[in-house]
């Protein structure tokens, strides 16, 4: 790609970003769009409708940028939880890393690359200059200037490792501090017990009761056995649907729409009022729900949530093997009630086993590459913009698929599913965007090359620099424009809701506050960081674009976390280890490429001297794993005991204990009172907990 | 090897065994040999001296065989602990397996092998017939008879897996039962805490005291901080040596030997009584010991043994992360006091780290093969006997080397060192005897063949059957004769002590009761089981010899456990998982060879149908690992709590608590009162614990 093509692409994307920015700023305060752009504020009742229009207001509507940057980390923590803080730390970490990389890359490496003569390019025509002249490919073979690149690789690695250590340490301490400051949460006091042994003449509930009250008489509080509710859940969903239709029909203005015929496909037979029809159907379904609910007592699953009076006792039970047989009384710390993935328990054991074995590694199956879309009309616009757009559309399908895979893999909590999907999406992205693009371009894309590990650096060194221009364009399209269009402007959702509103009846849906889709966003951000790290010394021209991406991302995601997303669960920063490992992987990938490049460029000494670097990085990673990872698995005895003691003096703890007894109940078991709701159709659904 | 050579070898070895058996039976009751053959009984005072000689007594001296077989497993358990029972279970397990294999192999497979015509051997001259005619090599290529071998492999695998499961289950339940029946042991109540954080102005002892009395006020009992005692230990050893010399000089009858000159090399200078010389030296050393001991208080190591009032609290502390930093307050269940490997703590931290990284895999460095001793005079005796004798002598050096390697690897308990050495010796034996012999014979002995995993079965199938005769001879020499000579007759030790007695002064050493060297014996037994399993369908002729070995071993080791060895530590059967894994490895090795053999013999269908077998075995192994392994790591909460409750009603528990406070003290710190001992030189050394 030549420089002018890149500039065209940047120009188009910049214009698009500006467009989305202005549209968003103007629309966000319009009441009709409030549900899209500030659903969280609306749900929390913090949004005042004000339909007036004035120029002053229009100008002040850009102030959201300032408001997004203003809150301190503590305010964000209080508002959105530790996961949101950790999520934003990925951006600040990226900014720190690429600020340093940018200074080194643009001020030192880029001039040296440009001064090289390897590629013999004409110097007079700058706009038509290939981007390659800014990359390491332009440095002469065997030139001593490559030692500057060598030093840059070493220094950069040291800086990134220092920052990684500092960040891991900071987040680990934040995690403890957050634990100390948080209110008692049911998950902390509760253990999920599985594989409860079957005793003849005794229900699982009785077994659990007798086991824990015998061995933990002073700390055992209560338990609730899990029941198989897949059928009930289906019925409740059906009831919900019928109820929604009923409400919809009631709200219709034209009375003729309220009728349908009773016979075949509603075309023949006697007329019925739709109202009567749905009311009757709802009654039927409600009857079924009641029948199913009363019979559910017998459908016990050998699993139970067992609650204790203190966090430490729950931790003890989850850490120490309970029964004599290691395959019975399997314990683990329970997720919080809203985090439990209930369908897990309804699946049969063998199904679950089969699942956990079969979905070890998906990904690497689908590959997409630039090659496939080599159109005849190779205009500058298309080379700059089109490939990455198609790639982007295809990739937007990946996160939902991975969530499905992870959810059938046997996790019991939504947060675990999301973390697992996050890792899957990350490797899928790295494999299918980075490696597939890089290796397909070099016509050496064969899996069997990985059977000869010695050739990998050479292969990557040949292939990776050639894709620099593609990835610069990718940062601009996927990084800049997609963040603006899809994240800030929520284009897809807006389009979808518009389609729904015009084509079919618009239902009076409740306002739905989404949660941050960590599993799709974290891999995206990490992939940009991987690009930045690998191309840092190869083609430093990518760095300014990345820095812009990180700045934009920081502002936009902060805004979204404050205004759009409400936390669905709280893992206490468990996503950070994923970020740490991925960054280490990026570093090692950079080292491998550096080894290959220095070899190709005929500086074998530099190549050999780079070999210790990946080894040192691996040692650093294993040290960090030992030093920090246990802090992210559970909480230490010291903290648990201190926090427990603090709670003992809290007067509200007894009411919390009462709550614990009922809080782990399958949501399908909670009764819904449609009948009351039916009286006044405008009132929202009433979900009453039957305590 | 031809049949007559084998018979010669068997004859020689049988005669040797008989010789050792008779010698042992006659000598064992002679008072002068009692220290060698029944040291345990002597130490326990159960041996009555009776120097009379009569024919009746001579005849009755063979009764030890009966006496060795008589005690039930419960009596053995009470006498020698669970480890001894588990050790004997290896023999009973082997007997069960090879009884079945022997019946199938000799009655079914052997006739079919013999009826084959592949090797075209003359049928009339049986004594000069090659042993190959009894092996699978003699079966015709593509013959349907190979399906009998195929069925045998499947059935044998099923039987072995069933027996393995049954045995694992049995030993796991024995382990729990033994735990319930055992007296309180200090290791159960104690946790070893390492990496105690340094606080300024506070000793480690104070840190430990304040930490555990704050967080475990109701269960914390006492602690003892470990001190760096390498210098003190050296001094105490020196004092011991000087004291022994002193005692020896005093016991001398000739007064002229009691003098030596003070000057150069004892040749010049004034005469000194040796007695005065040693007494003065002893006083000096004792002074040094006292000085060192008083200064040792400052040499604290950041490690401590912390005792609790109940087993369950100790288990909790060892399972749950204690401090906020995962690298501080590292806890693990403490070994029993006599099991602690004290030198570990004196090594510096960095040294320990370096060690634990560097000794991951030793072994496979030294290889010994039959080839190296191809002498000119190839007599039948030499082919049958000599190679395995030399191999045996070389291999006797391996276990001590492995113990040294394991002890510098960073284990804190002698039992852990022995278990680790056991695994090392096992792999060393399998690699250096089995693979080196097999692959060197086939001239395909290159490590790079393992880079092509697909060729391994073929390679083994070519090489393994050819070594059948060597391994049959090996079973006879190493299995039969070595068990008799070295284990029962204790030839090496007898020879050594004889040498000592004639060449230099014989010291009045105390009677030393040895412990069973699990690390050298278990790998030997398991290696024979590996031979039996791999050759079961290749050359069933090995099986009768193996069965004889297992029978002999059963009687002899039982005798040794009852009369010779005293348990040095008690792991509660932790050696069994090693046996289980090794047996599974043997099975898989057999399957791999079977896959290769069926391919070579041109029955590709049988070869393909064997492929699921190793996979099924691996699944079985991973199931057993999940099902049983946790039981061998610690004890479940249920048992710990029950046993603790039982102890609460025991009146002796308070005295046990008192004992706990002092029991984890470095043995070098316990004072030795030489002065008292000096008064009456004939009295044994008095080691008084300074409680």
UniProtKB/TrEMBL annotation, chains A, B:
Protein name: CSC1-like protein HYP1
Record-annotated CSC1/OSCA1-like cytosolic domain positions: 188-343
Transmembrane segments: 6-27, 97-116, 146-165, 381-405, 425-447, 459-480, 525-557, 578-599, 605-624
CSC1/OSCA1-like 7TM region domain boundaries: 376-598
Keyword GTP-binding: no
Organism listed in the record: Sesamum angustifolium
Location in the cell: Membrane
PANTHER family cross-referenced by the UniProt entry: CSC1-LIKE PROTEIN HYP1, PROBABLE MEMBRANE PROTEIN DUF221-RELATED
Keyword Transmembrane helix listed: yes
A Pfam family annotated for this UniProt entry: PHM7_cyt
Family: Belongs to the CSC1 (TC 1.A.17) family.
């Amino acid at each position: 790609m030549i420089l002018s093509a890149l500039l065209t692409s940047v120009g188009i994307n910049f214009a698009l970003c500006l467009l989305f920015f202005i549209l968003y700023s103007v629309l966000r305060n319009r009441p009709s769009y409030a549900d899209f752009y500030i659903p969280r504020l609306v749900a929390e009742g913090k949004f005042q409708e004000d339909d007036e229009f004035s120029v002053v207001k229009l100008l002040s509507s850009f102030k959201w940028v300032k408001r997004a940057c203003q809150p301190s980390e503590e305010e964000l923590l209080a508002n959105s939880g530790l996961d949101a803080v950790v999520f934003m730390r990925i951006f600040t970490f990226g900014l720190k890393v690429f600020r340093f990389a940018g200074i080194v890359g643009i001020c030192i490496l880029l001039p040296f690359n440009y001064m090289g003569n390897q590629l013999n390019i004409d110097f007079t025509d700058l706009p038509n200059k290939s981007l390659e002249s800014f990359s390491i490919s332009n440095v002469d073979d065997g030139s001593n200037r490559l030692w500057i690149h060598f030093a840059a690789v070493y220094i950069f690695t040291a800086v990134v490792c220092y920052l990684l250590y500092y960040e891991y340490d900071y987040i680990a301490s934040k995690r403890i501090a957050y634990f100390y400051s948080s209110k008692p949460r049911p998950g902390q006091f509760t253990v999920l017990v599985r594989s409860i042994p079957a005793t003849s003449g005794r229900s699982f509930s009785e077994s659990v009761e007798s086991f824990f009250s015998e061995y933990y008489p002073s700390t055992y509080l209560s338990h609730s056995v899990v029941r198989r509710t897949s059928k009930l859940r289906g019925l409740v969903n059906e009831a919900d649907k019928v109820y929604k239709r009923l409400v919809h029909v009631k709200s219709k203005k034209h009375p003729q729409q309220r009728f349908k015929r009773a016979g075949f496909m509603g075309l023949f037979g006697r007329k019925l009022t739709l109202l009567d029809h749905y009311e009757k159907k709802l009654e039927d379904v409600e009857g079924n729900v009641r029948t199913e609910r009363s019979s559910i007592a017998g459908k016990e699953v050998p699993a139970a949530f067992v609650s204790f009076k203190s966090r430490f006792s729950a931790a003890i039970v989850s850490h120490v093997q309970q029964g004599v047989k290691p395959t019975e009384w399997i314990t683990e710390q329970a997720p919080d009630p809203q985090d439990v993935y209930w369908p897990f328990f309804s699946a049969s054991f063998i199904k679950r086993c089969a699942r956990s074995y079969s979905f070890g590694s998906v990904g690497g199956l689908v590959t997409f590459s630039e090659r496939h879309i080599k159109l005849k009309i190779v205009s500058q616009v298309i080379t700059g913009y089109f490939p990455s757009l198609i790639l982007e559309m295809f990739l937007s399908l990946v996160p939902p698929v991975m969530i499905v895979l992870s959810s059938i893999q046997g996790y019991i909590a939504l947060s675990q599913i999301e973390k697992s999907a996050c890792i899957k999406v990350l490797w899928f992205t790295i494999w299918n965007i980075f490696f597939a693009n890089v290796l397909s371009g070099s016509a050496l894309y064969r899996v069997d090359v990985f059977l000869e590990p010695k050739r990998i650096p050479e292969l990557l060194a040949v292939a990776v620099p050639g894709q620099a221009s593609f990835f610069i364009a990718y940062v601009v399209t996927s990084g800049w424009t997609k963040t603006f269009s899809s994240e800030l402007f929520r284009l897809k959702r807006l389009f979808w809701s518009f389609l729904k509103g015009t084509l079919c009846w618009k239902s009076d849906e409740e306002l739905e506050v989404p949660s941050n889709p960590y599993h799709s966003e974290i891999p995206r951000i990490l992939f940009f960081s991987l690009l930045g790290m690998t191309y840092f010394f190869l083609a430093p021209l990518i760095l300014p674009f990345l820095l812009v991406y990180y700045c934009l991302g920081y502002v936009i995601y902060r805004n979204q976390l404050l205004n759009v997303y409400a936390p669905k669960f709280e893992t206490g920063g468990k996503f950070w280890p994923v970020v740490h490992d991925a960054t280490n992987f990026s570093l090692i990938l950079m080292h491998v490429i550096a080894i290959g490049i220095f070899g190709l460029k005929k500086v074998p000494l530099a190549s050999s001297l780079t070999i210790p670097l990946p080894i040192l990085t691996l040692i650093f990673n294993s040290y960090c794993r030992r030093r920090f990872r246990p802090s992210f698995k559970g909480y230490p005895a010291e903290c648990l005991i201190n926090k427990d003691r603090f709670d003992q003096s809290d007067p509200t703890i007894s009411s919390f204990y009462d709550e614990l007894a009922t809080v782990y109940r399958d949501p399908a078991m909670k009764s819904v009172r449609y009948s009351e709701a039916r009286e006044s159709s405008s009132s929202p659904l009433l979900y009453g907990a039957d305590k």
